[in-house]
Amino acid sequence: MFSKNEYIIYGSTGVCKIIDIVKKKFGFNKEREYYILKPAYDTNSTIYAPIDNDKISIRKIMTKEEVYDLIKTMPDNETIWIDDMNLRKETYNEILKKGNKKDIVKLIKTLYMEKLRKKEEGKKLNAGDEKIMNEAEKLLHEEFALVLNIKVDEVLPFILGELSPEEKQNLNF
């Protein structure tokens, strides 16, 4: 169980702060315990997340050490491209929903590599894949920004600054 004022990652919403923990009854449902969440980068929203919900992933945010370790593994991550568009969309959305940071990095790398491949052919990444890539980058960048105490738009330059020229080449930067 998490504590009040703790930052967590809530499914595909991303970084949220636990504002409170309350017992509440919604509609005809039985009374349950909820985390009241405020997304860190969307202060107009409030989310009531059931504590006993196992359908949406809730996890602790990374530590600085975990962020640095994850950055170092980025060049070596395999890609997870799926040719079937429907299966790809379903699988990639599931990755976003589960919020596993290593899988999200693989997803970003996969879609970035596909975007480069398409660009070489004079084409663009399809809209669905572009949307998923943007969501994945948003999730990762917001978490990195909070952990590293930097702005979201400073995350990519920070990551690139941590990689050697050889590692950047493996990522095609």
TrEMBL record:
InterPro entries: CarD-like/TRCF_RID (IPR003711), CarD-like/TRCF_RID_sf (IPR036101), CarD-like_C (IPR042215), CarD-like_regulator (IPR052531), CarD_C (IPR048792). Transmembrane segments: none annotated. Residues 1-112 form the CarD-like/TRCF RNAP-interacting domain. It comes from the Bacteria. It holds the Pfam family CarD_TRCF_RID. GO terms for biological process: rRNA transcription. This is CarD family transcriptional regulator. It comes from Clostridium disporicum. The lineage of its organism: Bacteria, Bacillati, Bacillota, Clostridia, Eubacteriales.
